[in-house]
Specification:
Strand order of the largest sheet: 5-4-6-7-8
Structural class: alpha/beta
Largest sheet: 5 strands, parallel
Number of strands: 12
Number of helices: 14
Length: about 375
């Protein structure tokens, strides 16, 4: 389980609680929500998208209207974090006009409104990041570099944009390698050997966070020359990842830090009884405290109530700089304001109003 992604999901829940208690935004209207885990995999993301579009219950159209039958189960969706799953989801959701607002899918390809008319995001496109990274490299006078990327839409599109910008800045690239964590280990070893044998001492990495960990673990198995790493936002802002032995203090651009008043207390206001109500929170509690909420199982002791969530130090409880969580928070509010614009007239809302995702999506 990714504690960081769980924190982001609960940031959406926190935003919805805030909205439901406001009198100036959707007054008298209560928003509900569902949280699904896509496991950062395309098949699961598509399955979740179908559930959002169709609902989880069996349905047979017995009306005389196809348009009524085509009504979606939800008016909008927050997510997904990664670009490739987002592309797969929005292709399907777009057929129903369901707007998808991502907080961390940065692939420039998703800006194509002809292919992805229902996709929105609260984070900038990699088109801007790639150009900025090239200027950063040029600023420090590093004109001979290496490049490595995740073999995904995020990595491939992002690196292609960076290489084009680097060429325009007069930067020479010795090698450009790709890797994804599910590929054979031999591929990872080959990429690591290319980096070790290279004469370039600056490496630009357009990588997902897990790919960075796998690559660094492989690199540190053998002697490694001092390297300066330039990171994309996919990993550079992750405080639990960018500490690396021998990586020379990685630098890059990240989304701004922020403060979300009340978020930390909301995250920590969690008891064993509350955790049991959600499979995700149950897994979080049992993983964090190495105990079982449902009794001893698999050798794990039974949770006895002495567990102190405030004593935990992990990415779930770390709200010192909630960059991603703030983007989720903004995405949730963006959807709420869009719904408000459809069913409310100033401070009066029609509780019985029927509306479609197309109306929410409409600018």
């Amino acid at each position: 389980m990714s504690f960081r992604e769980l924190r982001n999901a609960r940031a959406m829940e926190f935003a919805i609680h805030e909205i439901n208690n406001r009198t100036d935004l959707l007054p008298g209207i209560t928003l509900g929500f569902q949280i699904h885990d896509s496991c950062s995999e395309v098949p699961m993301a598509v399955k979740v998208a179908f559930q959002f579009a169709n609902g989880v219950d069996p349905f047979f159209n017995d009306t005389d209207s196809c348009s009524k039958s085509a009504a979606a189960a939800v008016p909008a969706l927050v997510g997904e974090s990664a670009s490739t799953p987002s592309m797969s989801m929005t292709r399907m959701l777009g057929l129903f006009g369901i707007p998808q607002v991502s907080h961390f899918a940065t692939c420039a390809c998703l800006s194509d409104k002809r292919q992805y008319p229902a996709f929105f995001r609260t984070i900038p496109s990699d088109h801007h990041q790639a150009a900025a990274l090239a200027k950063l490299v040029k600023y420090f006078g590093w004109t001979w570099i290496g490049a490595v990327r995740s073999d995904t839409d995020y990595g491939n599109y992002g690196m292609a944009a960076f290489l084009k910008a680097a060429q325009e800045e007069g930067i020479c690239v010795e090698y450009s390698e790709s890797y994804y964590r599910t590929q054979p280990r031999s591929k990872l070893e080959r990429v690591a050997n290319v980096i070790r044998r290279s004469t370039a001492r600056v490496v630009v990495a357009f990588l997902h966070s897990w790919d960075v960990l796998f690559l660094w673990q492989e690199l540190l198995r053998k002697p490694l020359p001092p390297l300066q790493w330039i990171g994309s936002e996919g990993w550079i802002i992750q405080s639990d990842i960018n500490r690396c032995i021998g990586c020379g203090g990685p630098i890059g651009f990240g989304v701004p830090r922020s403060v979300i008043p009340g978020l930390r207390e909301f995250l920590l206001d969690l008891s064993p009884a509350q955790a049991l109500k959600s499979p995700l929170l149950t897994e979080f509690w049992e993983t964090s405290f190495s105990c079982s909420l449902k009794g001893s199982s698999g050798g794990a002791r039974k949770c006895n109530g002495s567990e102190d969530i405030r004593a935990l130090q992990n990415t779930y409880t770390d709200t010192s700089q909630p960059r991603e969580s703030n983007l989720v928070y903004k995405a949730t509010y963006a959807i709420a304001h869009a719904i408000h614009g459809v069913i409310c007239n100033d401070m009066q809302c029609d509780k019985s109003a029927k509306f479609t995702p197309w109306q929410v999506k409409k600018p």
